[in-house]
Amino acid sequence: MQTLDMSRVELREVNATLQAEAGQTNQTQWVIENPRGAHAVAVGLDAPIEVTVKGSTGYYCAGMNAQATVHVTGSVGPGVAENMMSGEVVIDGDASQYAGATGHGGLLVIKGNASSRCGISMKGIDIVVHGNIGHMSAFMAQKGNLVVLGDAGDALGDSLYEARLFVRGTVKSLGADCEEKEMRPEHLELLADLLARAGADAKPGEFRRYGSARKLYHFNIDHADQY
């Protein structure tokens, strides 16, 4: 196991060291100490390595992640796992705005709460939030799954495409073109797998599913008041 202490090593060097790992590397275990709220920690990784960040971070932690597993033992600022492609990002604390934004793949687990716009424009990522999420979450979400064990704020799934939203708690309001959907056996199976992978203590039958009403894909004058 290799340790990178950010009280002694500059952020640029930390990221360059981790980004240099590629393919079937022998050095798979990394620890980042003393992040002290730094922005863009552990970004752009593209190797099957495991990185533990001991502490809280600022903006864009684990952005553009591919293959790697990044575990943050604290909380994170806006944009965690933005544009994530694959791998896994686990946050022990809370996440600020637009967690998992534009993510194409992989799994993002937030064990605390997530703020507004969680999963905005998601394109295939799976996001599991153990706590609550803020307003406008899954705005224009295109593909993937957002699972929320707590409550959801205003305008959930506004302008949603084909992403699936599962909420166990209450939803303050649904956004334009988002509606509650039937929970079919295939959705219960999918949800059970996501909950197990995220270490979430919940049963699939406790959730409701939300998805697109598919009325806003193309402009229609009859639906003009919804745009």
Explain how this protein is built.
Helix content is 10%, strand content 23%. The protein is elongated and about 60 Å long. Strands 1-2-3-4-5-6-7-8-9-11-10 form an 11-stranded mixed sheet, covered by helices on one side. β1 (2-5), α1 and β2 form a beta-alpha-beta unit. It has helices at residues 11-19, 185-197, and strands at 2-5, 29-33, 50-54, 69-72, 88-91, 107-110, 123-129, 143-148, 164-167, 178-181, 208-212. The chain contains 2 helices and 11 strands. The longest helix has 13 residues, at 185-197. By secondary structure, the protein is mainly beta.
Overview features:
227 residues; mainly beta; 11-stranded mixed β-sheet; 2 helices; 23% strand; elongated
